[in-house]
Amino acid sequence: MSATVTAPTEPTDGPEVSDGGIKRGLASRIVARTGGGLVSVGLVLVALFWLMPTFGLLVSSLRDPKEMDGSGWWKVFSSPGQLTWDNYDSLLSNDDMMRAFFNTIWITVPSTVLVILIGSFAAYAFAWLEFPGRDWLFLVVVGLLVVPVQVALIPIAKLYGDTHLFGTITGVVLFHVAFGLPFAVFLLRNYFAGIPRDLLEAARMDGGTDLTIFFRVVLPLGLPAIASLAIFQFLWVWNDMLVALIYADTDSAPLTVALQSQSRAFGSNIEVLAPGAFLSLIVPLMVFFAFQRYFVQGVMAGAVK
Amino acid sequence: MADVVLDGVGKVYPDGTRAVDTLDLSVTDGEFLVLVGPSGCGKTTALRMVAGLEDISEGTVRIGDRVVNRVPSRDRDVAMVFQSYALYPHLNVRDNIGFGLRLRKMPKAEIDQRVLEAARTLGLEEHLHRKPRQLSGGQRQRVAMGRAIVRRPQAFLMDEPLSNLDAKLRVQMRAQIARLTRDLGVTTLYVTHDQVEAMTLGDRVAVMRKGVLQQVAPPQELYDRPVNLFVAGFIGSPAMNLFSGSLESRAEPNDPKDAADGPLSVRIGSQRLHLPPELLAARPALRYYVDREVIVGIRPEDLYDLADEEAPFARDRDPEGAVLTAETDLVESMGSEVHVHVRLDAPPAVTADVQELAADVGNEDQVPDPRTASTEVVARFGPRTRVREGDTARLRVATDRMHFFDPETGLSVRMRENS
Ligand SMILES: Nc1ncnc2c1ncn2[C@@H]1O[C@H](COP(=O)(O)OP(=O)(O)OP(=O)(O)O)[C@@H](O)[C@H]1O
Ligand SMILES: [Mg+2]
């Protein structure tokens, strides 16, 4: 890979102003100039740079705690004997951390699934059903996007106190769902609205009800948007601490809160902190890779022309 | 299978646009009816009301013995082929064709069998596993057809199904659609703005303009006996030549035969054509127009080259009152025929109809200017014609096939009731 490699499809005359004379963006001009080679190298460097702390965390979580105070994690390269599974063993037998881990899952998965489910139903309605006041209602939903979480903290705490949701996983989930929905509806509605009308009408002629059209046409075609929404929502909830700190109690606290309380005594228990942090990092990564295959371009190709 | 009947159907869109106005149309069982008209005349709207994709503002739509105004699309048991094909991009050809059957919970084995049958009819067997994006335009079009025929519906609705294909493929697919619908014998309502499609496919053709039905008739009748200027100008390519003229009695001043039963001629600019008795018999109302203006219509193929030995009438050396002489402007050779544009010193027929038609078709600048008092006329000559640009051509007119229209109403002058 080198800077002299040029893409064979690139026209040799005036590469800046192809596409019918429309000036292309800086980035794509750079890509065109270098044939992608230099850019690829750059991207790999950025990725490595981003991975470094993650890798450091992984190594630290595998080191003997006694070594950790005195030296940096890169020392393992000179003395690989430091590596041990002990930290993960003790993490697995640490009841507080394990409960927090499962709490996180119990909070994140329903919050994500519910947001996608409710959000996509609502988005379909906003995009394709006709009812009075539809567009106004959608504008209200869009308006909710800019409501900060903080303004709701106190009223909802009061509400939860009255309804005995305080300190429960259900309470935390409900909060996340409520605040995840505006963005979900906004994103999915705009994506669904881009599905060609003819497709949905064809499905109606083929005997589809709104429900079958939703499940058999709109959802499959909306997968790219749903996948990105799933990742956003999952990350947001998984990494949330503010909401959990306020509405969860010790029994329902997620990993973020548990890690925070562990880190108060930093130094004495890095053997819990490091593997715990790595655990809380690797799950969203796995989710990302799982959904990544749905980010395909051109799902609509061939539908209408 | 069933008939489809539109009874006083109208459509007013929420923004106040009236797209269809009291449309009465009936497609009999097994008939292929083509709805044709210029862009924006409400063809698609009419079709979508039959499909149930658009609310019906006025009137009733009946399919078989059911009034379907309040019946949702999925229960109307009609299939539609969209101009865009509207294939499900995430499903392969097999599932695209079988989609409707699956939604109707048909047993899997039967679905497979029917899909295969439809695919075989359309020559799609090898592509069953492909996604729409992997198909050519023509193949996509056939999948869209397959999706309709596999359901064996009461009626087919097609909205310009061929307009996305290139010219050659369009001719092929046109023939295939004709064969298919004839073999299946399904009631079909077919929308197009292409008059060739309309004429070749339709058992009957309905011409619409601005939401109003103009004429419904078998293709040949539509061509031979257009009821008004609009239909006359719309059907046929090159279009019918229209110019204004005036009727005169040819009787001697003291002849007992006069305008009521004597011979008539039409003055076209400085020239004159005699109206043959057959024409007067077919259009008795013409007598009311003596000494008045009429709009004269002559189809390009009803003008023959008198100099061409092979042309009909070539032996008729005494065509008194059946010849027009005019300067040749332009000669366009089409290979099998030659279009000769000549200039006639008659005022062009500038009616509201003509102006709108020109605007509808999108060439406002071709609206003739009445002040010039000359009209370009197109004649369709045989390929052996020796007429050249700048020559003075002698055109033999098939006078018995001339058309006459009332300049005010635009209606064809035919029976006595007309005037
Ligand atoms: N949803 C709508 N709202 C308002 N007016 C509409 C709507 N759809 C169509 N119209 C108008 O109704 C008239 C008829 O439209 P329609 O689509 O039926 O025409 P068409 O005959 O199918 O034309 P084309 O040959 O271009 O497809 C047009 O004037 C159009 O602008
Ligand atoms: Mg249309």
Lay out the secondary structure:
The complex is a heterodimer of chains A (305) and B (419).
Chain A: H1 18-21, H2 26-34, H3 37-61, H4 65-68, H5 86-92, H6 95-128, H7 134-144, H8 149-163, H9 169-193, H10 197-205, H11 210-238, H12 242-247, H13 255-263, H14 270-292
Chain B: E1 4-12, E2 18-27, E3 32-36, H1 43-51, E4 58-63, E5 66-67, E6 78-81, H2 93-103, H3 108-122, H4 137-149, E7 155-159, H5 167-184, E8 187-192, H6 195-201, E9 204-209, E10 212-217, H7 219-224, H8 229-234, E11 241-249, E12 264-268, E13 271-274, H9 277-282, E14 293-298, E15 303-305, E16 323-333, E17 338-344, H10 352-361, E18 375-381, E19 392-397, E20 403-405
Parallel strand pairs in B: 3-8, 3-9, 6-7, 7-8
Antiparallel strand pairs in B: 1-2, 1-4, 4-5, 9-10, 11-12, 11-14, 12-13, 14-20, 15-19, 16-17, 16-19, 17-18
Helix pairs in contact in B: 2-3, 2-4, 3-4
The complex binds adenosine-5'-triphosphate and magnesium ion (MG).
Concise structural overview:
The complex is a heterodimer of chains A (305) and B (419). With 305 residues, chain A is an all-alpha fold.
Can you describe this structure?
- The complex is a heterodimer of chains A (305) and B (419).
- Chain A contains 14 helices and no strands.
- Chain A has helices spanning 18-21, 26-34, 37-61, 65-68, 86-92, 95-128, 134-144, 149-163, 169-193, 197-205, 210-238, 242-247, 255-263, 270-292.
- The longest helix of chain A is centred in the middle third of the chain and has 34 residues, at 95-128.
- The relative contact order of chain A is 0.11.
- Chain B is α+β, with helices and mostly antiparallel strands and 419 residues long.
- Chain B has two domains: 4-226, P-loop containing nucleotide triphosphate hydrolases (Rossmann fold, 3-Layer(aba) Sandwich), CATH 3.40.50; 241-405, no CATH class.
- Chain B starts with a strand and ends in a 14-residue tail after the last strand.
- The interface between A and B is medium-sized, with 25 and 32 residues.
- The structure holds adenosine-5'-triphosphate (ATP) and magnesium ion.
- The site of magnesium ion has 3 residues of chain B, from helix 1.
